[in-house]
Amino acid sequence: MGHGHSHDDVRIADPVRRRRARTILSAILLPLALLTIVGTWFLWPTGGGAERVQLDDPYSAAAGVDFVSGTVRQVINETCPSSGDLEDAGGQAQKCDVAYVEPNAGGSPVPVEVPPEILAATGVEPGDQVRYLDLTNAVTGSAATYIFVDFVRTAPILLLSALYAFVVVLVARWRGFRALLGLIGAYFVLSKFMIPALVEGKPALLVGLVGSALIMIAVLYFAHGFTARTTTALLGTIFGLAVTTALAAWATGAVHLTGVGDDAKYTLVNQVPELSLSGIILCGLLIAGLGVLNDVTITQSSAVWELAESNPRRSAKDLFTAAMRIGRDHIASTVYTIAFAYAGAVLPMLILVTLYDRALLDTFTSGELVEEVVRTLVGSIGLVLAIPVTTAIAVAVVKAVGTGGTPTARGNIRPVSGPVAPDELAAVLAAPEAEEPEAGPRRRGRRAAPGAEPDA
């Protein structure tokens, strides 16, 4: 007599084990969430730092100087407007490209001298939107009345952002839309909590850890829902974040990451004396790895669930082994992703440093590049260790909570799209097993149907 379902199927859909597993997950997650909330409350900025420290806008204009935007109508190579002083002194006038810009507020085009570095990079073409300083009413002693400042990039950036949002929603649909909203929430945490807290001199290690945990808890559940799969990914993410935090705290001191080679950091030190550069670097190491860490943990968690749904009778060991084969491929590709992303971000500096006549080891351990090297190594170690931990947690949870299917009378797993009602589950589990017809003598050479249960 054939048996319609195995004990493994009943265990996967057992509501008692589901409740027990969810209780264990809640017992682990709720204290972590509570610590995050308490830490956020304790570290929340009071507002004194931002009000006490105010920097001048680099694009602000002095008295008598107007900051104007306009459209380039034509570009002509002619005598530079700034050469007027040379001509007055008996020197020879210089030739340069001059863009005639029509102000957006109206008026005739004005000559704006284009800097050589802009010409070497992208140049200026008719139709470009640019910003320039109007020194007509200012007493500066400069022969040039109009000075090029920057391009106006609002339109292409908005177009690119709209395209990005459209592609994400088109492919990921509602989950992609929620992920975009979660990204806005993450920006809120950064701008309203982490950055002001650092300005006020709060402990950078705690600010980075608490802020990163807060972002991950909010983003993961908002984008993927309150499910055991998401909770598993979150636990793996927090583990990877803890590893990254410990390594970053050690590496910041051991490698002597000072950050003094950056002009922006110099400005921060001069304007905010209580701000620690090493603390900023430490916090940056944590934030830099959040996205990739979230990527690998949610992918591993989903991989375990999909493998379990494809073969519910797979043992925990086989399920872990199969999921880790996927995880190893993910590790290989993700390591490249982090390294190339950081290399691309500092490519000009990388080119400049490699042109120096010094050893390769000295180049990568120099103050200009060592921060990116440490960021790559610390982030990679954290995400690599998070993959087996997330996989192990997911296997344990999926064997206890289940894949989301209910056993039928013949022992197959029937997928369900939502929660299983207790009465429905009880009815399915209590249903008598369907009797298999007596199998007659098999013909020689006939193969059993795929998935057929062996006779008792």
UniProtKB/TrEMBL annotation:
It holds the Pfam family YibE_F. The chain crosses the membrane at residues 21-44, 151-172, 179-198, 204-222, 234-255, 275-293, 334-356, 376-398. The keyword Membrane applies. Keywords: Membrane, Transmembrane, Transmembrane helix. Residues 431-456 are annotated as: Disordered. InterPro entries: YibE_F. This is YibE/F-like protein.
